[in-house]
Amino acid sequence: MFRMLAFACVLAGSCALAAGAASAQQTPAAPAPAAVPAPMPPYGPPITLEQAKRVMAAAELEAAKNSWQVAITILDSGGNLVMFHKVDNAQLSAITTSEGKARTALDFKLPSKALDDAIAAGGAGMRLLALKDITPLQGGVLVLLDGKIVAAIGVSGALSAQDEQVAAAGAAVLAKSGM
Predict the structure, then answer these.
(1) What is the DSSP letter of 137?
(2) C-alpha span between 43 and 160 (Å, rounded)
(3) 87 with 95: CB under 8 angstroms?
(4) What is the model's pLDDT at position 30?
(5) Cα separation of 66 and 69, whole Å?
(6) How is the beta sheet containing 71-76 ordered, strand by strand?
(7) Residue 30, Cα to own-chain centre: how many angstroms?
(8) Which of 117, 119, 108 minimizes the C-alpha distance to 141?
(9) Could you tell me the pLDDT band of residue 29, with boundaries at 50, 70 and 90?
(10) Is the pLDDT of residue 31 over 90?
(11) pLDDT for res 175
(12) Contact status, residue 146 vs residue 178, Cβ threshold 8 Å
């Protein structure tokens, strides 16, 4: 048994040396070019009440179609509350969470899921936990009009992916119509 173990160690050592010599003869590969992040959209004028009503109606329709009891918050591009709706029987925590998701998306110019994913990945993403007053949970989406951020919509009360589905349905209304 001892001989087999010694043989295995010698064999492993010689294989490692051969692999090291082979890799030393190869030229190192050039580093991949750094990916250039897409430019973030600028903040635009605040969403109008009429536009917000259309966004809210589309979000409410998506929630009702799926029987999801949610709270929906729309903040304008300046972070001011424009509209809020809580479906009957939505959990009370959904009220503040929906606003937090919308504010997080607006402040970072990213869907709140991006922060959720960064924290879940660990490493440097864990630094986000040190920030105050963020809600890094899926369900906050930017509302764009003509390539500018006019609002953010946050939804809470269902599963996170369902919350985002409702928010995306609302945000899509202005993107489709262009007004």
Answers:
(1) S
(2) 26
(3) no
(4) 58
(5) 9
(6) 81-86, 71-76, 148-156, 140-145
(7) 32
(8) 108
(9) low
(10) no
(11) 81
(12) yes
pLDDT tens track for 60-106: 999 999 999 999 999 999 999 999 999 999 999 999 999 999 999 99
Strands 71-76 and 148-156: antiparallel
* CATH number where 141 lies: 3.30.450.150
Q: Is residue 25 part of a domain?
A: no
- With contact defined as beta carbons under 8 Å apart, do 83 and 52 qualify? yes
DSSP 39-108: PPPPB-SPPPHHHHHHHHHHHHHHHHHTT---EEEEEETTS-EEEEEE-TT--THHHHHHHHHHHHHHHH
Determine the Cα–Cα distance for residues 93 and 24; give it in Å rounded to an integer: 59
pLDDT at position 35 is 65
Instruction: Give the containing element (helix H, strand E) for 13.
Output: helix 2-25
Say how far apart CA 112 and CA 137 lie, in whole Å.
6
Residue type (1 letter), 103: R
Q: Is residue 109 part of a domain?
A: yes
Domain count, the chain: 1
Q: Is residue 129 part of a domain?
A: yes
Task: Identify any residues that bridge with 43 across adjacent strands, giving them in sequence order.
Answer: 149
**Which amino acid does the sequence have at 127?**
R
Residue with the larger pLDDT of the pair 15 and 129 = 129
Domain of 72 in residue numbering reads as: 49-177
In a domain, 80, yes or no: yes
**Contact in structure between 73 and 126 (CB atoms under 8 Å):** no
Which residue reads 């190869």 in tokens?
26
